[in-house]
Write a structure and sequence with these properties.
The structure is a homodimer. By secondary structure, chain A is α/β, with parallel strands linked by helices. The first copy, chain A, folds into two domains: 31-57 and 315-420, Aspartate Aminotransferase, domain 1, CATH 3.90.1150; 62-313, Aspartate Aminotransferase, domain 2. Helix content of chain A is 39%, strand content 17%. Chain A contains twelve helices and 16 strands. In chain A, β12 and β13 form a beta hairpin. In chain A, α4 crosses α8 (278-287). Chain A is globular and about 60 Å long. Chains A, B: Keywords: Aminotransferase, Pyridoxal phosphate, Transferase. Chains A, B: InterPro entries: Aminotrans_3, Aminotrans_3_PPA_site, PyrdxlP-dep_Trfase, PyrdxlP-dep_Trfase_major, PyrdxlP-dep_Trfase_small. Chains A, B: It comes from Pseudomonas mohnii. Chains A, B: GO terms for molecular function: transaminase activity.
Chain lengths: 421, 421
Amino acid sequence: MSSSTAAELIARRQRALGASYRLFYEEPFAPVRGEGVWLYDKNNAAYLDAYNNVASIGHCHPAVVAAISEQSALLNTHTRYLHPSIVEYAEDLLSEFPPQLDNMTMTCTGSEANDLALRIARCHSGGTGIIVTRWAYHGVTSALAEVSPSLATGLPTASHVRLVEAPDSYRRTADFVASVKAAVQDMQAQGIKPAALLVDSIFSSDGVFSPANGELAAAAQCVRDAGGLYIADEVQPGFGRTGGQRWGFARESVIPDLVTLGKPMGNGHPVAAVVGRSALFDQFGHQQRYFNTYGGNPVSCKAAHAVLRVLREENLQANARDVGSYLKEGLRKLAERHEVIGDVRGEGLFIGVELVADRETQAPATVAAAAVVNGMRRRQVLISSTGPMANILKIRPPLVFARKHADLLVERLDATLNDLR
Amino acid sequence: MSSSTAAELIARRQRALGASYRLFYEEPFAPVRGEGVWLYDKNNAAYLDAYNNVASIGHCHPAVVAAISEQSALLNTHTRYLHPSIVEYAEDLLSEFPPQLDNMTMTCTGSEANDLALRIARCHSGGTGIIVTRWAYHGVTSALAEVSPSLATGLPTASHVRLVEAPDSYRRTADFVASVKAAVQDMQAQGIKPAALLVDSIFSSDGVFSPANGELAAAAQCVRDAGGLYIADEVQPGFGRTGGQRWGFARESVIPDLVTLGKPMGNGHPVAAVVGRSALFDQFGHQQRYFNTYGGNPVSCKAAHAVLRVLREENLQANARDVGSYLKEGLRKLAERHEVIGDVRGEGLFIGVELVADRETQAPATVAAAAVVNGMRRRQVLISSTGPMANILKIRPPLVFARKHADLLVERLDATLNDLR
């Protein structure tokens, strides 16, 4: 796209879509085609995608395209009719979970899944209190905006929400478990019954953290003792991304009461779900009617099933572990030459690279991070940043990312960091 | 499907999906294929679809299948990159609205659209109060369950929600406008600031009502005078279904502040939107970050654009008006011979047939309605029922429904009603 055409399209976009619609990068990127880990612009220039976790099994994977095309031409209707696709998918998906998690409800988005999980937790506990991390993001609905402080709405935190510290392995300024305990006690002191601890198992928006052994279990126990549920938000870490396990929560022995799934589930097709203990779904289902018009339609189920099969057939979880370790190694070598890299962390192919102005004080290098993200885009590698100070590079490529792609990313990051000096 | 196979699939479904998942009809229907107004079971028996408003331009319309297939193979990503599909669709869709409604935000479901509309209304008004009809349904999120009394959750109505009477043209037991005025006054007396009047323009779940000239305008004015917005929920009546106009709200001269769209928008593909005044989106967008991962992706935009084009090219709104009138005529003739039909009403191809045990007392014939719905299913015509007593037959076919299909429906309804005697 010529820059005048791009400018014109941006102006039209702003007119029709308004202020909520923001674009990445100083120079917005306009892909026209995707394949595997590559996105192409209209001049057929290839951009290495190290950011998009939705197209998790690779952009435009033929198995998903075929599933969607075939089923769309055959039948697309709702779950008040009987169709094998949702049953077959549910059984297959549930086989990926501990046997206690034996039920699934399908929605269209991770937001709908998290919102439903809160409804189930409030129904079960009879309470309203929700505990989330200080810079959490859980979705776009009214109920989820309340528990998504990273939206920075400027609104006061709702009285039934408590913010706790993420298990920050780099700064170690706070204790996640102690923070959860204090939140529960504070709620109870104010007469608020805890309904749930809701955590993203890789703490994506807080800055990409992997809790140390036992932290999630201890926090979950504390909330359960107070009558609440432990909800694992797997919208980001789920479906093998963390490499060592299918679901982020499985790094620890504790089994969540509810697990929410989204982004990579349909490789871009809008499909999501809540998985959990059937007793909880039954309790909720007998009290309240829940019907999601598009949720679990045959096209969505076939798309999601294709994703699950590819994940297994192409061994993408093992690839995430292997290439993720390899990439982290490469990034840590870069850190030897670039003082601005304070920390390299993450699991599998969800990696955070924290940039700091000073390794002693750990002062966040927010401006540098923005410069790196834009510099990488100019070098045709797509990444972004995360964390409260947006100083942590977020590297989260499709799971078909290979070692050669990791090499390319490290090489271009090296050049970009050299430009900073 | 043999009945043993069906029973087995139902048992597996209950095991994996639990209590929330309910099936229509005494003998559940298992379609395997759809085309136009027809759904086919595995024995290739054809069922006339007079119920599904999602597949609005006809099941598996080739233009939508082609749009989805082609774009899925090319690129499916989010709106933080620049892509013409959302801009082109937004401009074309907005051309279908009064010029004051000049912005659009895309979501994946009507629930997400209604939930976002509430967030925008609360942001604009600084209030929390929401007014809905007594048997309203607006969606599945936490915030929408509060304003969807038809879910019959058994939970007390939230303190910031007021229920008003629908403009019931048959029973005429209550005055919609007076009811809205009283709700506003009651809120204000209790220190609750009204944020919005949220109404389905065809009052689908209340029982299918068309407000008399001026009723919506007067109710909207009353809420606006108190600082709230008028939100038209067009998830059911929108996109030409009501025949006389593209949007249900346009039966009256009043223009809503926000309009929510869903179900038929992608003919089954999960896509939805909020359309409204740009000043409202700007105010919200500057205060709060809103990003919907799948919302407005190129596949969804291409699917929705194909639907809009087919709606115009095949003159489906005019067809809805013509066939809707013709069908109502046929149903009214049936009423001459079947005492159980108390009222035939609706707009275009959204028709309600109210069954009563006694025309004088207007006592709802709930059991008869269930018998008719199941009897029609045995005669291979799909309809359902609505209203607080579920005694109103809900007839809401794809918009490609022709006069010959109306004839078939009337003929089989006649036979089914004869069986009741």
